[in-house]
Amino acid sequence: MAKDFNKNIEKCFKQGGLRNIESDPESIRRHLDKASSNVKAMDIMFDNQKYDWTIVCGYYAMYHAVLASLIKIGILATKHYCAVSAFNEFYIFRKNVDEKYIEYLNRAKELEEKYSETLEHAQADRVSDQYGVQVITNDDAEWIIEAAKDFVLKIEEVLAD
Q1: The whole model's pTM is what?
Q2: Who contacts 102 (Cβ-Cβ below 8 Å, separation ≥6)?
Q3: Between helices 51-72 and 80-87, what is the axis angle to 10°?
Q4: Alpha-carbon distances of 149 from 13, 60, 62, rounded to whole Å
Q5: Are the C-beta atoms of 23 and 67 separated by less than 8 Å?
Q6: Per-residue pLDDT of the chain (161 residues; tens, 9 = 90+)
Q7: Nearest-CA neighbor of 82 among 57, 63, 101, 98?
Q8: How far apart are CA 30 and CA 49, in angstroms?
Q9: Domains plus CATH for the chain?
Q10: Phi and psi, residue 136, nearest 5°
């Protein structure tokens, strides 16, 4: 598995999805602030029963925490796929954080993508009763609230060391 991620990371560096940079404490702080802001927005969306936006905000909270973690080790990610691959390699496989955190990130991304796929399918098929309609459950939203908060907190702890 790690060998596949090494190939993915190499490809990301070649294609510009990852770049080596100097670690920048100000950029790390800004991404962690953005992650915290997305957690707050996620709570607001959930309280207003906007479950689709709860999931989007939760995913982006985790994603900004990932970006902060990569900047900490001198990597700038400009593509989601590359950021997740690098996070896997440098934090999960090297046992800096538990494997459950990559599962959180992957599940959140899948939930977020299901909305855009639904819209694309509806547009292609012109099925009027499917336009923009994807059943988002309270369970999905509740899951991401806990996962995003746990994820962001863990990354903040790791980066504080």
Answers
A1: 0.79
A2: 84, 87, 88, 92
A3: 60
A4: 30, 11, 8
A5: no
A6: 344 557 889 999 999 999 999 999 999 999 999 999 999 999 999 999 988 888 889 889 999 999 999 999 999 999 988 998 899 888 888 777 777 877 877 777 776 665 444 434 433 433 333 345 566 778 878 888 888 898 898 889 888 87
A7: 63
A8: 28
A9: 23-160 (1.20.120.330)
A10: -105, 120
